[in-house]
Amino acid sequence: MKQSAPRIVSLALVLIGLPMAGAVLSGKPVPQYLEFPPETRYISHAGFSWPAFFLILSIVIAALSYTAGRIEIRPAGRQQDGSKRPFPWWGGLGVLLGIAAWILAWTRFAWFSAFQPHTFTPLWLSYILAVNGIDRRNTGLCLMYDKPVLFIALFPVSAGFWWFFEYLNRFVQNWYYVGVDFPAWEYFWYATLPFSTVLPAVLSTRDCLDRRLQGRIRLALPNTPLRRSRLPARLLLTLSCTGLFCIGILPDYLFPLLWVSPLLIIVTFQSLAGKAHIFDISGSKNGSILISSALAGLICGFFWEMWNHFSLAGWEYSIPFVDRFRVFQMPVLGYAGYLPFGLECTVIEDMISLRQKKVE
Question: 315 has which bridge partners?
C-alpha cells in the first residue's frame, strides 16, 4: 500500500494537472475553469456536420463490430435453480420507492416544490436497491450483500470520481445544468449526493450482468502488447496524456478524449507498474467483465438520460458536430461515451478494493 501511494498521487496529478496546464500554456484565462458553481458558458461549439457525424459513427461501428466479432458464445452450463429464491424485501422496497420517486421527479406537485430539484438521489438509491435485489434473486449474490464494506466505500469515492469529470467538462463544456440555483456551498452538497450514486449503480449493474455472462461468453482478444513490452505502454501513455493536455485547447475536436484518455492513462500506469489491468484477459480470464462493464455504463446511461428528461433540475448538452438525433437530451452518438465510462468504473473499483495482482 505504501509503495502504491506515490503512484496514486502521480496519477492524480497527471489527470488533474494536464488539462489545466494545456489551458494555461495556450493563454486561456484560468478563472473560467475554476468558477463555482459553473455557470458561464464560454465555449461556442461548432454546429452539426454530416462528415464529422459519419466519421464518428464509423469509428463507433468499427469498434463495436471488432468486439462483437471476438465474442465466442458458449453453451449455457448447468445453472443453479433460482426458482426457490425469493425476491428480497429490500429489492421490492427499491422498486416501490423508485416508482414513487419517478412520479415525483416528473410531476410538479405544489406541496413537493421545495424538494423538486432533489429527486435524482432517491431515484438512484432505489435503482441500486432494485438491481442488487435482482442479482440476489437470480444468483444468490450481490454487491451490496456480499461486499458491504466495498459497497459503502463506493459512495464517497463515487462523489470524487464524478466531480473529476465535472472538472474535465469545464474544458470542453459538453453539458451544463439547468433548474438549479444554489449558492456555492449548497450547490456542492446538493450535487455531491447524487454524484455518490454513480459507482454503486454502475457496478451493481455490472455484477448483475457479469454473473449471467460468466461461462456463457468469452471475449477472444489478442494478448495485449502492454503485457509483453513497456514500449507500447509508454507510447500509449504519451498519446493519452497529450490528448488530455489538449482538450481545453481544441475542445471541439478532442472532446471524446474526456472519456477515453483517463481510462488509458490509468491502464498504462498500471501496466508500467507491473499491475494487472482490465484489458489483461489472458489465462483463465474470459473477458466477460469488459462486456458487462461497458453494457452497465450504457444501461445506467440510458436511465440517467431518461429520468433527466422531465425532471426539474437536470442537464442539457452542447456537443460539437454531432448534436442531432437526440434520445431524451443526449445526441444519439453521445451514448457511445458510456461504454468506456463503464470500464472506468470497474478500473476505479479495482483500485480501491486492492484486488490488483502483480503481473508475472
Answer: 177
Question: What pLDDT, on the 0 to 100 scale, is given for residue 1?
Answer: 46
DSSP structural state of residue 247: T
Q: Are 112 and 104 in contact (CB under 8 A)?
A: yes
Pairing of strands 71-73, 217-219: antiparallel
Rounded-to-integer distance, Cα 259 and Cα 84, Å: 42
d(CA 238, CA 42): 29
Sort strands 217-219 and 314-317 into parallel, antiparallel or unpaired: unpaired
Contacts of 200 (CB under 8 A, 6+ apart): 128, 143, 144, 151, 154, 155, 158
The whole-number pLDDT of residue 221 equals 73
User: What is the rounded distance in angstroms from the CA atom of residue 69 to the CA atom of residue 220?
Assistant: 9
How far lies 115's CA from each of 81, 180, 188, 190, in Å? 43, 12, 17, 11
* DSSP code at position 325: S
* Cell numbers at 176, concatenated: 451544463
The pLDDT assigned to 48 comes to: 97
Beta bridge partners of 327: 330
Report which of 344, 348, 350, 339 is spatially closest to residue 296, judged by C-alpha positions: 339
pLDDT in tens, 174-220: 999 998 888 999 999 999 999 999 999 999 999 999 998 887 888 87
